[in-house]
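name: query_chain
kind: protein
chains: 1
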Amino acid sequence: MKQATPRKQNWKITKIPNLYLLGESGTYYLRIKPKNGKRQRISLQTTDFMVARERMRQHMLKLNAVKPASDETISALIEKYITDLARRVQINEITASNRLYKLECLDQVGGTKTIKGTWPTFRSLKISDLSEKLFENWIATHSQKYSATRTNGAVTMMRELLRIAVKEKLMAREVMEDIAHGLKYVSVDYDYKRMTLSLPSREEVAKLRLEVYRRCKHKGTMGGYLFDLLLCSGMRIDTARNVLWEDVHKDKGILFAGKAKTGSYTIPLFPDLLELIERLEKAFPDHKPKDKLVPGVSIQSVLTSSCKAVGIRHLSNHDLRHIFATRCMERGIDVSVFSRWMGHKDGGRTAMLIYGHLRQAHSLEEAAKMRFIERPVTTPPKSDEPRHPFSADQALIDAEDEKLKQLKRG
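structure:
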């Protein structure tokens, strides 16, 4: 009797470790081997990826394949977080002012002797007590006392705390991802029209640039180069300070922005940008491909003092990006084109939201220059003769009327 050949199953690997898809049925399975145990294959009884992911997490918790959160207090976690912030400053991942801002957000949550926190019991909580609901309630309280921007800064700080907990093995990644659903950013109502219409003029920007260079030269820093890079490329500060020399492709006429908010993109080497790179080549003749194009972290402090010195409103690093976009708009460059230069990947929708009113204002300015009726060149009136604004047109009309009368007489 012929022995039956065992049926071969078509298993597909997903992007989640231990989560598999059975091709024949489309059902998801958890395949795992716990410590000191046998390999298990558990049907998650669903064909939906998101449902399967959640059920897998629950099963792994039951199997103790995922370590639950530690019973250590948040205070112990905060100490590790503060140490990590200092490390990030040393490697130029964040600035010293950014570190102080995060610590300030931390104080506004837990409170100090002089600040009443929005979550007074936060530091005394156990890490295992944290939950999605607790975070949601805290955000509701925090947003009533602080602005949306400040609240989002505190949310970012909280997320970084959770990542440190995972890194220090005080919390499982699956647990962190679960409770982090409660850490949602609140919406910020930006007044883009007010913000962009109050940007400095070309002349004011030129004065500001000279002041920034003067102050940076006095301090012996490279902030002037970073100012020009932001102004001439439209990059965000985090993107600009991570551009390497190997990202410059003069033969192709582009600059590669590898670390960006919405993913990598390329920027044309505009004449001013190309001139900046040539100045940097002279300043750093021994640069290596992996060296940063501009060895600077931030120019916010010198930018603030320079704005005050030249008498214009306070500008941030990001305002230089707005100035770049405004200049593009004034040059009549299509929104879909310069939005790609800025790294947007939505076909210009974001740019239209922020700068659309500038296009309308520029359109009205250009419309004022349009003329459809040619005006005759006439001899200017004598100084003692009052001139009506339409006197030339009236004289032409009178002459035509006289010709018409003569034709009728003839």
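note: The radius of gyration is 32 Å.
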